[in-house]
Amino acid sequence: MHDDNLFETPTKLSVGTPSKPFWSFFNGSFKGAVISHYSISQEYSDLSRALAQIRDVIAAVDLTVNKYERCQELQEVLARLENKSFAKLKNGKVFRKQDLLLKNRDLQYKGLVYWKTATGRLKDTLALLLTDVLVFVQEKDQRFIFAAVDQKPPVIPLQKLIVREVANHERGMFLISASSAGPEMYEVHTTTKDERNAWMRQIRQAVERCVFACV
Question: Which residues belong to any copy of the PH domain (predicted)?
Answer without folding.
Answer: 106-208
